[in-house]
Structures are given as C-alpha cells and as structure tokens.
C-alpha cells in the first residue's frame, strides 16, 4: 500500500519546487561583492566624501534587498503581506526620520 492509496482525494497536493543551492550561492557571492566594494571605497581614502556616503547607501539598500529576497525568501509567492507590512514600516520610519530632521533644523 502506497501513500497514494491512502489519499482519498480530499487533500490538495502541492508540489514544492526545490531551488537548489545555485541561487543561494549567487546571492552570497553578490553580498560579498557588495561588501568588498563598500570596504574598498572607504579603505581607498582619497575618494570624495559625498560619493562615498552615496555609494555606501546604495550598497546598503542593495544588500538589504538581496538579504530579504533570497535569505528571507520574500521573492517567493505568498509573501505579499510581509512585504506590505515591511513597506509600511519603512514608510513610517522614513517619516519619523524626516520629522526629526525637520524638527532639529526648524
């Protein structure tokens, strides 16, 4: 008797597609490259400060997107609610930062 014989058809079968390690390895290498670029920019020393800060912010945003997309699996189907809640949290945090900066320089 197999598992298929025990299934009376009432349960819906879902196949889980296994990605394998390839995408995780690519995401890991991409994260390392982003970190090395940021480190090299700061270690160079002769780079313009404004450019360094802008590059570090871009690298940080890309790093967050890679971490959330691949390691937290937010790129997969069925993760729209966590994405919406995080977007709302980022929006509220951004407004709080803008309000604090506005309040300090008013």
Key features?
single chain; 106 residues; mainly alpha; 2 domains; 0% strand
Structure description:
With 106 residues, the chain is mainly α. It folds into 2 domains: 21-75; 77-106. 71% of the residues lie in helices and 0% in strands. It has 4 helices and no strands. The chain has helices at 3-6, 22-44, 49-71, 80-104. Helix 2 runs antiparallel to helix 3. The longest helix is centred in the C-terminal third of the chain and has 25 residues, at 80-104. It is flat, with a radius of gyration of 22 Å. The mean pLDDT is 80. It is a multi-pass membrane protein. It holds the Pfam family COX4_pro. InterPro entries: Cyt_c_oxidase_su4_prok (IPR005171), Cytochrome_c_oxidase_bac_sub4 (IPR050968).
Low-confidence stretches: none
Mean pLDDT: 80
CA-based shape: flat
Tally of helical runs? 4
Radius of gyration: 22 Å
SSE sequence, one letter per element? HHHH
**How far is the N terminus from the C terminus?**
77 Å
Kindly state the percentage of residues in helix: over 70%
Total domains = 2
Keywords: Cell membrane, Membrane, Transmembrane, Transmembrane helix
Subcellular location: Cell membrane
Family: Belongs to the cytochrome c oxidase bacterial subunit 4 family.
Main location: membrane
Summary, kept brief:
The protein has 106 residues and is mainly α.
